[in-house]
């Protein structure tokens, strides 16, 4: 009798652990790999093939960031709003801390005492040395290619310009629709400020073919890698997706922007990624 009770107890423990592990990953979507199907991307017709990977259903929320980092740097406060005003380095640190908290192997090595000699962005006064553990199961930032593949719908792509639609206003939040009223005409920062434009909840607007929210607009999403400016003489860290304060063309799947790694703004956030 005692033996049967012990077996039952072990079964319950294993079941609870598996449920707990599943709940940790419930906000990740499995993206099936393959070649690019969307003709609007930068990689249509290329020989690039993407392996399977996981990506966040939505942008990292302020609630999630605060639980891991113990502080909320965002200007527009709200648990269900995307975290913003974070640097690329902040995002690397967040990925590692979240991985460690969940018992995963951190994907990045981050040494704040050493200078990355490859960096040519002189405005970056940190230049911390960041490396990767390719086989690690921890959280990471998507590469621009992975981000574009997921935003375009992967193998389920319907060839949209924006993530989930050909209508920018249906797909995401940008300067014209993120405030008190719809703004008409060209981008104007003064008008954007007067209109109280700001971030919106992380799962607002429609999802794309893969069930991913707000990959167009809301906050610009830091990605891993480099974005070359002026040929190869200057390199910055890339972002994708556009944000609430930017123009609609910035929210197109193919658009890529960049900032120096230590920069931060009230429309700069992130989306998590993970190896399969």
Automatic annotation (TrEMBL):
It comes from the Bacteria. Residues 25-273 form the Sulfatase-modifying factor enzyme-like domain. This is Formylglycine-generating enzyme family protein.
């Amino acid at each position: 009798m005692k033996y049967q009770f012990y077996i039952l107890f072990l079964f319950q423990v294993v079941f609870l652990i598996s449920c707990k592990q599943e709940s940790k990953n419930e906000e990740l979507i499995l993206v099936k790999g393959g070649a690019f199907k969307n003709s609007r991307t930068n990689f249509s017709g290329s020989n690039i093939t993407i392996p399977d990977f996981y990506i966040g259903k939505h942008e990292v929320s302020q609630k999630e960031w605060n639980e891991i980092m113990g502080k909320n740097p965002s200007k527009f406060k709200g648990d269900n709003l995307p975290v913003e005003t974070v640097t690329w380095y902040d995002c690397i640190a967040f990925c590692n801390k979240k991985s460690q908290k969940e018992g995963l192997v951190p994907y990045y090595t981050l040494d704040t005492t050493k200078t990355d000699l490859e960096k040519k962005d002189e405005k970056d006064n940190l230049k911390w040395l960041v490396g990767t553990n390719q086989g690690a199961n921890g959280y990471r930032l998507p590469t621009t290619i992975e981000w574009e593949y997921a935003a375009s719908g992967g193998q389920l792509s319907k060839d949209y310009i924006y993530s989930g639609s050909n209508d920018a206003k249906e797909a995401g939040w940008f300067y014209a629709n993120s405030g008190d009223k719809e703004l008409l005409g060209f981008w104007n920062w003064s008008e954007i400020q007067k209109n109280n434009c700001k971030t919106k909840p992380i799962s607002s607007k429609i999802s794309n073919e893969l069930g991913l929210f707000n990959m167009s607009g809301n906050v610009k999403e830091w990605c891993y890698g480099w974005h070359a400016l002026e040929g190869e003489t200057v390199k910055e860290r890339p972002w994708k997706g556009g944000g609430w304060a930017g123009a609609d063309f910035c929210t197109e799947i193919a658009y890529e922007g960049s900032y120096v790694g230590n920069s931060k703004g009230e429309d700069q956030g992130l989306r998590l990624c993970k190896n399969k």
